Amino acid sequence: MIGSAFMLMFVGMSVVFIFLVLLNLAMSLLAYCTRGHTSREQAALAEEELARKRKKKISTDTGDIVTQTAVISAAVHAFRST
Question: Which residues, at least 6 apart from 31, have a Cβ–Cβ distance to it below 8 Å?
Answer without folding.
Answer: 38
